[in-house]
């Protein structure tokens, strides 16, 4: 953190630095279903489209998913599913902007932290994927 804003959050198996342990604890609580931590996320670098995508993703309820196409429509650019994927690929705040809830129409789609973590997060949120979607995740 610098000057009170969070620049990026990365998922890691390593123990967090003591400076960030309180923030990490609040994020872990959020993953388990607790309230979203009130963090000042620095999104000043985002384009208008990226902001629209991130706003749309923030409105996907816990335990639910939306397709890249759905998010493109909500963001005001129907047909821009690939651009949604590109915006989510550079999301510096996975979990806080829950891009793991955005899936492809035929499977889980990508995730900057890896498909296994995406599937684990969806499982924690009690979202059940179909057998075809789970199979696709292991192949794709």
UniProtKB/TrEMBL annotation:
E.C. numbers: 2.1.1.63
MF terms in GO: methylated-DNA-[protein]-cysteine S-methyltransferase activity
InterPro entries xrefs: MethylDNA_cys_MeTrfase_AS (IPR001497), MethylDNA_cys_MeTrfase_DNA-bd (IPR014048), MethylDNA_cys_MeTrfase_DNAb (IPR036217), WH-like_DNA-bd_sf (IPR036388)
Any one of the GO BP annotations: methylation
Domain Methylated-DNA-[protein]-cysteine S-methyltransferase DNA binding: 48-126
Catalytic reaction equation(s): a 6-O-methyl-2'-deoxyguanosine in DNA + L-cysteinyl-[protein] = S-methyl-L-cysteinyl-[protein] + a 2'-deoxyguanosine in DNA; a 4-O-methyl-thymidine in DNA + L-cysteinyl-[protein] = a thymidine in DNA + S-methyl-L-cysteinyl-[protein]
Range of residues in the leader sequence: none
Major enzyme class: transferase
Any Pfam family: DNA_binding_1
Record family assignment: Belongs to the MGMT family.
Organism: Methanothrix thermoacetophila (strain DSM 6194 / JCM 14653 / NBRC 101360 / PT)
Keyword annotations from UniProtKB, A to Z: DNA damage, DNA repair, Methyltransferase, Transferase
Protein name listed in UniProt: methylated-DNA--[protein]-cysteine S-methyltransferase
Domain of life from the UniProt record: Archaea
């Amino acid at each position: 953190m610098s000057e009170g804003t969070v620049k990026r959050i990365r998922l890691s198996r390593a123990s967090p630095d003591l400076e960030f342990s309180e923030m990490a604890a609040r994020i872990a609580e959020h993953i388990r279903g607790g309230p979203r931590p009130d963090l000042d996320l620095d999104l000043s670098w985002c384009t208008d489209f990226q902001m629209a995508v991130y706003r749309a993703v923030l409105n996907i309820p816990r335990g639910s998913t939306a397709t890249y196409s759905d998010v493109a429509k909500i963001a005001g650019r129907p047909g821009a599913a690939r651009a949604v994927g590109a915006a989510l690929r550079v999301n510096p705040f996975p979990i806080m902007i829950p891009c793991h809830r955005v899936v492809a129409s035929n499977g889980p789609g990508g995730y900057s932290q890896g498909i296994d973590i995406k599937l684990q997060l969806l499982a924690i949120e009690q979202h059940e994927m179909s057998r075809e979607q789970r199979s696709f995740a292991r192949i794709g």
